[in-house]
Amino acid sequence: MTARLQAMRVRRVFAGGAGVHGVDLTVAAGEIHALVGLNGAGKSTLMRVLLGMLRPDAGGVHLLGCAVADAGSQVWREVGHLVEHPLTYGELTGRENLVLAARLHGIARGEAEATVEQVLTELGLERYAGVRARRLSLGNRQRVGIAAAMVHEPRVIVLDEPSNSLDPAGVILLRESLRRRAAEGAGILVSSHHLDEVARIADRITVLNAGRAIGTLDPSGTDLERSFFALVLADDERRPVTEGAT
């Protein structure tokens, strides 16, 4: 198994005990790995640590075989992410935002423009391409943010709750985009509250609770929700109640 992204005993704790506590996680090439948990389970915190936005207190993270602390521009050009809020510039159109994202990842201007047209079509954004981002609906801003994370065809993709705000058509387009990229060798990590949607796309599912990885779910299982809550309840009963993670 070729690891695109790997966390080894990662720990990042805030005042009061919230954070992540010794998490191991691997995202393989060609894999969609889902991270699920209740609000406050630590999903966003873990993703920030994996992307170098937060420094771990202990443990390590490797991106494409390179320690995050040592990763240079050649590594980061191969990474695409959307954590919490889509990064869009309100005064730029959807197309201009995507051209900028492509250029920032090292794609030449002529190639960037062609790649942007492809991802606009892929995510159903053609009719909004000339609209300034500040005038787009929340769902279409989310689509632009997702497109910006994938426009440069990265080998590592990290998306935090990507289906939030998307309508059913947007969810289907996102699903197809992720499957296509995984089939081409990308390692993809997504977090979600929507277990039914996770089951449709994930190869593996890791459950987080109070900042710890407490088990896995079978995406082909018949009652994913029941299995999820059974894991969380059993974990809650094994440990003292502490302040949640973020």
TrEMBL record:
GO terms for molecular function: ATP binding; ATP hydrolysis activity. It is found in: Cell membrane. The keyword Cytoplasm does not apply. It comes from the Bacteria. GO terms for cellular component: plasma membrane. Residues 5-235 form the ABC transporter domain. InterPro entries: AAA+_ATPase, ABC_transporter-like_ATP-bd, ABC_transporter-like_CS, ABC_transporter_ATP-binding, P-loop_NTPase. SMART domains: AAA (SM00382). The keyword ATP-binding applies. It holds the Pfam family ABC_tran. Its main location: membrane. It is a peripheral membrane protein. GO terms for biological process: response to antibiotic. Keywords: Antibiotic resistance, ATP-binding, Nucleotide-binding, Transport. Belongs to the ABC transporter superfamily. This is ABC-2 type transport system ATP-binding protein. It comes from Ruania alba.
